[in-house]
Design goal:
- α1 packs antiparallel against α3.
- The mean pLDDT is 95.
- The protein contains three helices and no strands.
- The radius of gyration is 12 Å and the shape is globular.
- With 66 residues, the protein is mainly α.
- The protein starts with 6 loop residues before the first helix and ends with a helix.
- It has one domain.
Amino acid sequence: MMILDKPEDIKLFRLASLRSALKLEVIGMKRRGASVYSIVKKELGFKGSKKEVLKQLENHIKTRSI
């Protein structure tokens, strides 16, 4: 079992959750409320299509986890 108790670990876990949800949106799944695509664009300032934003998010996560 893994415990994420540091703020930076919690933020990284949230980004990973957003990445998973955005992958589902890319293939067509919808959700109530704001889309993950719009949340990621607003919070991180990414631009482009869903697939482009997903790639940018994956690169962002890779650079933060190193």
